[in-house]
Amino acid sequence: MAELKTEEEQIEAFKAWWKKNGVMLIVAVAVAAGSYFGWQAWKNSQANYTSEASALYQNLVQAAADLSDENNQKTVTFIAQQLTDDYGDTGYAMFGQLFLARVDAENGKYDEAINALDIAITKTQDVSFVAIANLRVARLMLQKEDYTGALARVEKVSEEEFATQQQELMGDILISQGKRDEARVAYQKANEALGAGVNHPLLDIKLKDLVKG
């Protein structure tokens, strides 16, 4: 390309280039700016969304501190449902179902409590949370005297960190079925899973009662 020697030639060359490429440049800048500001708006929207869910959850936790109060129970139920309906893709909705299950269990509504826990399980891949929820479901089924269902749920828990709770609950279910020898084995496994130097007085009592029997 021949060197431009004069200012006039440079100006004319720029005009020609702009005529050919100016519109495309403006469009490219507009698209880039739109993408940037759209991304920023989305991030702000997500932050507000999470903040709103967090504020609701804090209100739920405060109400759940005293579930003997009927108004607090209603508050927990209402907020837990709102979290599920409007913020179902957040962890707050998942934990809200745990509190809802507590309210239902307090009122003897075991089927409703189990349903709330099952909803929570579907909302997470967190194995620890799922284990805790399954243990709670098993306890509720034990309350209902659904021993087969309770054993099936407790057997779903295989994480080592929950071995003591899992085996102790299994022992409780077996005791309720009159299977004392099997219950003793489960309690012994629960005791072994505690580890050295860890005491569990209630578990000790359960084992001693079986030995005496």
Task: Give a short overview.
The chain is mainly α and 213 residues long. The chain is built from nine helices and no strands.
Descriptive notes:
- There is one protein chain.
- This protein has 213 residues and is an all-alpha fold.
- The protein is built from nine helices and no strands.
- Helix 5 runs antiparallel to helix 6, helix 5 packs parallel to helix 7 and helix 7 runs antiparallel to helix 8.
List the helices and strands and how they pair.
Elements: H1 7-64, H2 70-86, H3 91-106, H4 110-122, H5 127-143, H6 147-154, H7 163-176, H8 180-194, H9 201-212
| Major sheet attributes | none
Low-confidence stretches: none
Helix percentage:
over 70%
> Helix- and strand-based class?
mainly alpha
Give short descriptive properties of this protein.
mainly alpha; single chain; 0% strand; 213 residues
